[in-house]
Amino acid sequence: MSATWVSVIIAAIAVVISLLALIFGRSDKGQATSNEHAKRIHQNELATERLRGDVAEKYATKHELREAVDDLKTSINGRFDRLEDKLDKERDAA
């Protein structure tokens, strides 16, 4: 084997090693980026859940609001009924 062939083989091996190093280096960087994105997505999901919890604590749902309004109407109507009864009794007494 001549020195030329040896240098060609060594150059080819060097190119193959360089390509492998480049491919593995890029895949490690891609995995790091992928892991970072997964962390950010998870943090955003947690923040969204916390916000939903805060909204649920601070604001009533439609059903709860409807029940509260119905209770208020019942209370107001009951007070007006008592007032009318009281006025009727006073009219009868007079």
In short:
Keywords: Membrane, Transmembrane, Transmembrane helix. Helix content is 94%, strand content 0%.
Please characterize this protein's 3D structure.
- The structure is a single chain.
- By secondary structure, the chain is mainly alpha-helical.
- It folds into two domains: 59 residues; 35 residues.
- The protein contains two helices and no strands.
- It is rod-shaped and about 135 Å long.
- The N and C termini lie far apart (135 Å).
- Keywords: Membrane, Transmembrane, Transmembrane helix.
Distance between the termini: 135 Å
Average predicted local confidence, pLDDT: 86
How much strand content do the residues show?
Answer: under 5%
**H/E element order:** HH
C-alpha-based Rg, rounded: 40 Å
Amount of helix = over 70%
Low-confidence stretches: none
Kindly name the structural category. mainly alpha
Largest sheet: none
State the shape. Answer: rod-shaped
- Per DSSP, the total helix count is 2
Please provide the count of β strands.
Answer: 0
Count of domains? 2
